[in-house]
Amino acid sequence: MVRDPSREPEPPSVDEVLDALADDAARRIVAALTEPKTASELSEECDIPLSTTYRKLEMLTDASLLSESTDIRRDGQHTTRYSVSFDAVTVSVGDGDEGDAGSREFDVEFSRPERTRDERLADLWSELREET
Question: Residue 6: inside a domain, yes or no?
Answer without folding.
Answer: no
